Amino acid sequence: xxxxxxxxxxxxNEVPFKKRxxxxxxxxxxxxxxxxQCDTYITLSRGAGKDKITTERKLNLTQGKQVFLDExxxxxxxxxxxxxxx
Length: 86
Fold this sequence. Notes:
Elements: E1 6-12, E2 15-21, H1 24-31, E3 40-46, E4 53-59, H2 61-69, H3 71-82
Antiparallel strand pairs: 1-2, 1-3, 3-4
Helix pairs in contact: 2-3
C-alpha cells in the first residue's frame, strides 16, 4: 500500500517550518507553539513538477489559536486542506 506523503510548510509566530509527513494532524501538534502571537500561514502540497498539488491557508490570530487548542477545529481545518487532494 502506498503512503500519501505531504509537505507541510508555512510560518507560525513568524518562524518558518517545512516538514514531510503522512500524518498532517500529528505534525501540526508537533509544531504547536506555547502561544500564538500573530497570523499563521499553512501550505500543504503533494507531488512534484506538473503533478504537484498545493493548497494554502492564512489564519488570523484567533483562528490560529483555535487550530492548535481545539481538536475539532484542527480536524476540520486539516480535512479542508486535504479535500484538494481527493
